[in-house]
Design brief:
Helix 3 links the parallel strand 5 and strand 6. This protein has 3 domains: 200 residues, Nucleotidyltransferase, domain 5; 93 residues, HRDC domain (DNA polymerase, domain 1, Orthogonal Bundle), CATH 1.10.150; 85 residues, Orthogonal Bundle (DNA polymerase, domain 1), CATH 1.10.150. With 411 residues, the protein is an alpha/beta fold. The radius of gyration is 25 Å and the shape is flat. This is Ribonuclease D.
Amino acid sequence: MSSALPADATDDVEIAPLTEPADGVGRVVDTPQALARVVEAFAAGSGPVAADAERASGYRYGQSTYLVQVRREGAGTALIDPVPLPDLSALGEAVGDAEWVLHAASQDLPGFTEHGLRPASLFDTELAARLLGMPRVGLAAVVADTLGLGLAKEHSAVDWSTRPLPEDWLRYAALDVEVLVAVRDVLAERLAAAGKSEWAAQEFEHVRTLPPAPPRVEPWRRTSGSHTVTGQRRLAVVRSLWEAREANARQRDVSPGRVLPDRAIVAAAKALPRTVPQLVALPEFATKGARRRAPVWQQAIDAALALDEDALPSTRGPRTDAPPAPRAWADRDPVAARRLDAAREIVSQLSQEHSVPSENLLQPDALRRVCWTPPRPAGAPEIADFLRGRQAREWQIGLLAERLATAFAEV
């Protein structure tokens, strides 16, 4: 059904580099007066609003937005600095119920919401590319596939909190929204030809209305390499160092990984140094910054070493209602394991049939849950309700509920 090009199709297409915005690179909008002019222009514009945002991931603490790019027919492109202009709600009100076009919208919408930008409707070019089975879904690849244009991405990982922003960074930012509406139009045509327009509409609305993710339980357990740390006492050191690093990073507005790498936390947890000299003797603490703050890290280690036994973290992690890891299913519940095998085969077949990645047909967690604890009875209506409760979209339920019910009955 998909009208996507084959994996190597763009290799035979001449790609024209996109190097300069049609309207040039204007001044960054960083005053109320300049923002008022942008609001007026976008209110008078027409059609969808192409939008993007730049963060300083890996440099600053958190995921704050440091540049907002918007473009609309008749209004041109505006590059807005949300640091001095944190309230951009007037821009959202100016465009009313116009559709917003973003690439990988789930990354930018939380930041937009913080600044008062709440699109009334959405078209996500990355999600559209996924539903079409396109082999590469990054913005540059999608622009090349749909328009035959080459979009440079050399500034995607720079520190966007830098002020003033260099001219070539601003040019890059403006180009990110330059052709986004044109890309949207091509993808919309392909979705219609593939019979997937309704699927896409449901996916876009799901992303647009998705509530903020709840805080993680025991986020320190996501420390890279912590799975190699054994024993409750050493895990307590991981937790204590992670919390100390988090506080330091938040206070300094620096990415935690720049304050202290995960590998240093893990190394200290394994070595259990009792003094600052022992700590800085570890190779992972040889950097100037780690040595300068070594007393802070040693204090965190000492606090963990002094904890009572009943205050130590569990080696098994927090209790959740999630199913166990699938590798354990055959021993713990062989019937559930067979349900999972059958369900995965169904999803795999549908993925090939419709040229949609398996994870976009149904969230893997929802698939595992319905296989581990299916509703009783496990008929199609009951499975449909179960999946609906796990935020599956109606197009996904329509493809899967009946098939899963049949497979579960056979198992």
